[in-house]
Design goal:
Order of helices and strands: HHEEEEEEEEEEEEEEEEEEE
Number of domains: 1
Distance between the termini: 37 Å
CATH superfamily: monomeric porin ompg
Radius of gyration: 20 Å
CATH class: Mainly Beta
Number of strands: 19
Largest sheet: 15 strands, antiparallel
Structural class: mainly beta
CATH architecture: Beta Barrel
Number of helices: 2
């Protein structure tokens, strides 16, 4: 019952938050902000953009691995990540970007084999960073990253709370943008779950049952590229990778390759960004990890509340 209440409360809060900012955007458009879809698409590709977005990432993942029936496992989830930059001056912005995942289906492996855990809140992560644009069209971002044990289901809850630094570099060209984001998280707690044989999942990182007292050290990030076309269309990709330093050999590295298409359109006065990507994992944990991933993103472009 408590889990259901937490999920409903979270969904209602997201709906109120989204509706409020979309209404503010419509008021802002009424005041004369009439950028074209093509202009908005190019601004959104800038890692140091001053445009606000409410990003809803819908992810379908097909898994592989040595565990029995690993290849027949699939998951479906949604991640809500608002990006509302705070301009500090003409070239510097402050970003606070939480990511709130909601699992609709997610397999976990235990003593009875794979089980589907159903609808649950996931492990919330967030970063706080400062971005700066240079005259050379280079963008630098420096900040801190954290991931927290907030999943409503114990089997989906990460064994660790992670904190660490984050850095990103992007280069803007006439034809588009390329860049790389790198973060590293160290656990601030020791593993103390006595459950044996459980495989828990945090993002694309898979944690087999650890020994008491163990810690975690994970390097993760994202490489991204964007090629501008016309009429609000772009070719883009932003696959996420990770390297679990404490995992056993063969289960450390997770790396997808892929990309897709972006389209920015207007619905009345509201600009919307739609993105569809496919990722194929050229490296994935041997025991159990992702193999194919489809991500569909819906991003209303909203007015900043400050």
């Amino acid at each position: 019952m408590k889990k259901v209440i937490r999920i409903k409360t979270c969904i209602i809060a997201l709906m109120i938050f989204t509706t409020t900012l979309i209404s503010a955007q419509e008021d802002n458009q009424t005041k004369g902000d009439k950028k074209s879809a093509d202009e908005i698409a190019k601004e959104l590709a800038d890692p140091n953009t001053v445009l606000g977005t409410l990003n809803f990432n819908f992810d379908y993942i097909n898994y592989q691995g040595d565990l029995p029936e690993a290849g027949s496992q699939n998951s479906f989830s949604m991640g809500f990540q608002p990006v509302l930059p705070v301009p500090l001056n003409k070239t510097v912005n402050l970003f606070v970007r939480p990511n709130i995942p909601l699992y609709f289906t997610q397999p976990t492996f235990g003593v009875n084999g794979f089980e589907n855990q159903g609808v649950n809140l996931g492990n919330i992560s967030a970063d706080v960073a400062v971005g700066k644009s240079f005259p050379s069209k280079t963008v630098g971002v420096l900040g801190v990253f954290g991931s927290f044990r907030t999943a409503s289901n114990e089997d989906l809850r990460s064994p660790y709370t992670l904190l660490g630094p984050e850095i990103a570099v992007g280069q803007i060209f006439k034809w588009g943008v390329v860049g790389l984001l790198v973060s590293h998280g160290w656990s601030v707690n020791k593993y103390d779950d006595p459950t044996a044989g459980r495989v828990s999942i945090m993002g694309n990182d898979v944690f087999a049952a650890s020994k008491a007292g163990e810690s975690a050290s994970i390097t993760s990030g994202q490489y991204f590229y964007n090629i501008s076309l016309k009429n609000g269309w772009q070719i883009a990709g932003g696959p996420t990778y990770s390297y679990n330093h404490k995992a056993e050999k063969g289960n450390k590295f997770t790396l997808p390759v892929g990309g897709g298409a972006v389209k920015v359109v207007r619905f009345g006065k509201l600009p919307m960004k739609f993105q569809l990507q496919y990722w194929y994992y050229v490296a994935s944990p041997d025991a159990f990890g992702p193999q194919h991933q489809i991500r569909f993103t819906v991003s209303p472009v909203v007015a900043l509340p400050w």
